[in-house]
User: Fold Alpha/beta hydrolase from Pedobacter yonginense.
Amino acid sequence: MTYQIIEEDGFKFIEAGKGETLVLLHGLMGELSNWELVIEHFKDRYHVVVPILPIYELPILTLGVKALSRYVHRFLKYKNYNQVVLIGNSLGGHVGLVFTVAHQEFVKALVLTGSSGLYENAFGGSFPRRESYDYIKEKVEFTFYDPATATKELVDDVFKTVNDRSRVIRILTMAKSAIRHNMSKELSKITIPVSLIWGKNDKVTPPEVAEEFHQLLPNSELNWVDKCGHAPMMEHPDVFNNYLEKFLDRILLK
Assistant:
């Protein structure tokens, strides 16, 4: 990443640009670099902020999607942000949903891509062969339609993370919290505009998950990305950015 991580009052984040604020929320194993091409595309017209979710810092007994939502609330209040567009991938989308249900007054619109919150087919309950680099490589490749998207650098980062005992315990705790926290009965409360940008070949949160979100969110649109897995902003950034740009133009510039 070419952006410097800012540390202020216990928060870590990167930011670029000026204008309406877009807050990007990364996934459970996500890196800030996952959003790099989104930041590059929008920083000339928007204020783009990516908080680092404290998955490895929060007390493990309270770790869960609600704890991360409370963290986002504290961060937005600290930065005095209001009426932001929340954009979340995977777990980040789930956190965005929980936050929006609780604090819809902070959110002008919501964008979900490969979001958990209804159903996900992730790593499962454990990493049975986490010492095997090839096994982890296979699991990372599972995330994408094109296995080549799982670069050596990305696989190296995941391999290092899951072989850190403290971190892997937190990852599994967080994953179980996300699976337990099904939001189907709460989604009707979200009345702001929602854009679903979904990989047509997502194996982690399959297409039927996007269709269910679309059905349950009263003010939503559904956009498909062909030949794409769980992270459209990484695998097909031009298509993702085009969908996002049209959505932002519609809701912010009208």
Remarks:
- The mean pLDDT is 92.
- The chain has nine helices and eight strands.
